[in-house]
Amino acid sequence: MQDFDNYDCLKLSKCFYLTLLFILRGYIVWLMSVTNMRDRVSIIEWIYPQTSLFYLSLISGAVGLFVLLIISLRRPGASYWVQVSWRYCRLILVAALVFDFSTHVLAYLYWQLVTIPWLIGQAVITFALIGLCYSSERLHLNLIEFPQKLPKK
Fold it and tell me: What residue segments make up the domains of the chain, in order of their start?
């Protein structure tokens, strides 16, 4: 019973949350910096030495915010666009990962904002998460089912 939610659907895969955390890392860093009362910029500067990288991370994370919106609206009686979007969440997450990695490649090639080790690290994490998204059976089951109203007992 622990694996199912209130609508008798399988609870979301940890892969789903892990991928969202990676995509939304710019927003997470931003929230951490906003809550730091002493120095609001130091956390951002520590994680993103170039502010341009921080802004690129926010842009690529916007797709993750859309997926977060879909998750929050995923319930019985949801709008048709939510149901359709839910079926394509894996593709949306992968597109967000590829876009995020592309921004880092662009930052390296065009502006020299990142180093080769940083870019290789990003590539490893990105492709590992993409592989996890496609190999996770639980994520596949999550995307197949959509909450329906249960009969009252």
Answer: 14-144
**Are the CB atoms for 90 and 134 separated by under 8 Å?**
yes
Sign of CA dihedral 96, 103, 60, 43: positive
Residue 149 burial (CB < 10 Å; 0-12/13-18/19+)? exposed
What type of residue is 4? F
Place of tokens 């002493």: 38
| Residues 94-122 pLDDT 10s | 999 999 999 889 888 988 888 899 899 99
Tokens of 116: 């080769």
- Assign residue 50 a region (left: φ > 0; alpha: ψ between -120 and 50; beta: otherwise): beta
Structure tokens at 132: 């996890």
The length of the chain, given as a count of residues: 153
Structure tokens at 29: 């860093």
Q: Are 13 and 139 in contact (CB under 8 A)?
A: yes
pTM over 0.85: yes
Q: Which amino acid is at 140?
A: H
